[in-house]
Each structure stands twice: as structure tokens, then as C-alpha cells.
Amino acid sequence: MTSVLAPVNAARPVTPLGILAAELAELTEELDAMGGVELGLRVRLRRAWELADGLDPYLDLCTTPESPALRELARRTAAEDWSRYAGETPVEQEMLSGHVEGQTLKLLVHLTRARRVLEIGMFTGYSALAMAEALPHDGQVVACELDPEVAAFAGRCFAESPDGHKIHVRVGPASDTLDALCAARDRFDLVFIDADKAGYLGYLEVLLSGDLLDRHGLICVDNTLMQGQPYTSRASTPNGAAIAAFNGAVAADPRVEQVLLPLRDGLSLIRRVDTPEETPHD
Ligand SMILES: C[S@@+](CC[C@H](N)C(=O)[O-])C[C@H]1O[C@@H](n2cnc3c(N)ncnc32)[C@H](O)[C@@H]1O
Q1: Same domain flag for 193 and 112
Q2: Which residue from 82, 95, 157, 223 has its CB within 8 A of the most atoms of ligand 1, so it is best to mutate?
Q3: 247 three-state secondary structure
Q4: Judging by DSSP bridges, how do beta strands 188-193 and 116-120 pair with one another?
Q5: What is the rounded CA–CA span in Å between residue 126 and residue 122?
Q6: Above 50 in pLDDT, residue 4?
Q7: Is the pLDDT at 236 greater than 90, yes or no?
Q8: Residue 104 C-alpha to ligand 1 middle, in angstroms?
Q9: Which has the higher per-residue pLDDT, 25 or 274?
């Protein structure tokens, strides 16, 4: 595998924890610079900053390392100048899910014994490749991506991975791809939703009301904490409002059972419980 050493751009914080750590770092610096602030207060603030700042690196350290192909894909994504991409919606390196979330998805694919995975929102393919690595040799990931240039970037990375052949990319609006997959009577064991936030409720409805999701299928949804916007008083962006509405609708939906894990920017796991054959475990 080639590894051209291009400069890697620093990612800005885009998770509640990352934003909290950056905020505490700034406060600590400001307080230290002020002078005259009681030592005990500065020590406590530094401790709070350490607790927030050290968690993600520690999770990385304790998680199974990523494959060389995933590491290279992440490096290339960080080195790319995304501002020159002129697709329908802006793309940026911070969209990539990364090591710990990728490994979580791999474990979920293993645990559910999934053979067919649907990804809605692929970007440069980190999560698609992570899930593909956990599939058997004849398993498939169907990955939806709106932006053809981004899809081509991902395709070049997949070509260099021993698991890339399992990924089938569908370029275009995910809603069109879902319609086509429904019409073809396709079916998936695991679905990862990680595209336009305003589309989340629509994607979920297609999955719950049609036959696209296997009876025992699992739906994983990314960014359901949306930088903390749904639970903090700070003004919400359209994405924050869309996620708050999505989370509220899921919580009120009797057809599903779910948990929102505080992993990175929030990962919700959802399963359908309204199947007639359902028999609860004793
Ligand atoms: C957050 S990124 C996906 C990150 C990826 N899952 C990963 O883990 O690295 C969201 C992607 O969804 C794509 N997208 C946005 N709207 C879409 C739509 N309506 N249909 C398909 N893809 C869309 C964007 O172009 C972007 O590449």
C-alpha cells in the first residue's frame, strides 16, 4: 500500500466531549494568565480539563487498532483539501467517523452476524470499509453517497484494501437509492445512517415501514448528540434541530427499542420490536 507523506490538517472539535475539552483548555489558560486566581480553583479547573481531554486518546489506546487500510484512508482524508470540492453540499475531514466508532461498527457487524449492510452517507468510506472488514468474504456493504467526487476518492481507497470488493457504491440522493433497493426487494441485516440530518426521519420511516430491514435487523444512527445541541441551551443549527426532532420521534415510537450511546458525536442503536413473531426472552 502506498503511503505518500502529505501534511495532515488538524481537525476541529465536533463532538460534545471535544468541544468541552477545548472550552476547558481555553478557560484554564485564561485563568492562569489572569493572575491572582486562587490556586485551588485553578487546580480543579485543570483537573476538569484533564478528565475531558484525556478520554478520547485513552479510548483510542484501549480499542483494537485499525487496519493499515483504514489508517491510510483516514490519513488521506485528513491530508485532502476539501474546500476545493464543489459538490451539492460541503464536505470536510471532520465527517469521518474514525477509529473507535469504526471498531464499534465492526463489532456490531460481527455480533449481529450481518451479511448485508446498508450505509446511508459514505463520505471517504471509513465506516463502510470498517464494516466490510467484519463481513464474511461474500458479504456486502451497499454504500450511498451523494457526491460523485467524494465517491471516487473512496473508490480509490477501497481498491487498495483486501475488503474493498465487498463495498458497492450507489452515487446519488440516498432516498432515490432506497426506493430502488425497495423495488428490487433488497434486504439488509444492519443499516448505518450517517448522511443529511434532515433526511434521517425519512430514512428511518422507509426502514421501519418497508421490507428493506431484516426482521432482526439493527439500525445504527450517527451524530445523534450533534455537538450537544439537543440538550444544551445554546442556539441550535438546522442540523441540531433535525437531530432533536429525530431523537424525540424515536423516543416516542412504539415500534422500536433504542439506546443513545455517548460515543463520539452520539451513536443511536435501534431495533424494531413490532414484529408479530416477537417473543420476549424470559
Ligand atoms: C458524515 S459524512 C459520512 C461519514 C462516513 N459514514 C464515515 O464514517 O466516514 C456524510 C456523507 O453523506 C453524504 N450525503 C449528504 N446528503 C446525502 C444524501 N441525500 N444522499 C446520500 N449521501 C448524502 C455527504 O456527501 C457526506 O459525504
Answers
A1: yes
A2: 95
A3: helix
A4: parallel
A5: 8
A6: no
A7: no
A8: 19
A9: 25
**Shared-domain flag, residues 119 and 191:** yes
Rounded average pLDDT over 87-106:
93
Q: What percent of the chain has pLDDT over 90?
A: 85
Q: Are residues 158 and 251 in the same domain?
A: yes
Q: Is residue 135 part of a domain?
A: yes
49 and 108 together in one domain: no
Q: Give residue 232's pLDDT band: very low, low, confident or very high (50, 70, 90).
A: very high
Residue 99, domain extent: 68-272
HEC assignment per residue over 153-188: HHHHHHHCCCCHHHEEEEECCHHHHHHHHHHCCCCE
pTM here is 0.93
| Per-residue model confidence (pLDDT) at position 282 | 46
Smallest CA separation from ligand 1 atom 9, residue: 96
Q: Which atom of ligand 1 is nearest to the CA of 150?
A: 27
The span from the CA of 194 to the CA of 200, in Å, is: 8
**CA 194 to ligand 1 centroid distance, Å:** 6
- As for ligand 1, residues whose beta carbon falls within 6 Å of it are 89, 91, 95-97, 121-123, 126-127, 144-147, 150, 173-174, 194-196, 199
Average pLDDT over residues 263-273: 97
The per-residue pLDDT for 58 is 98
Q: Are residues 247 and 137 in the same domain?
A: yes
Shared-domain flag, residues 78 and 30? no
The amino acid sitting at 167 is I
CA 150–ligand 1 middle distance (angstroms): 9
Judge whether residue 279 has pLDDT over 80. Answer: no
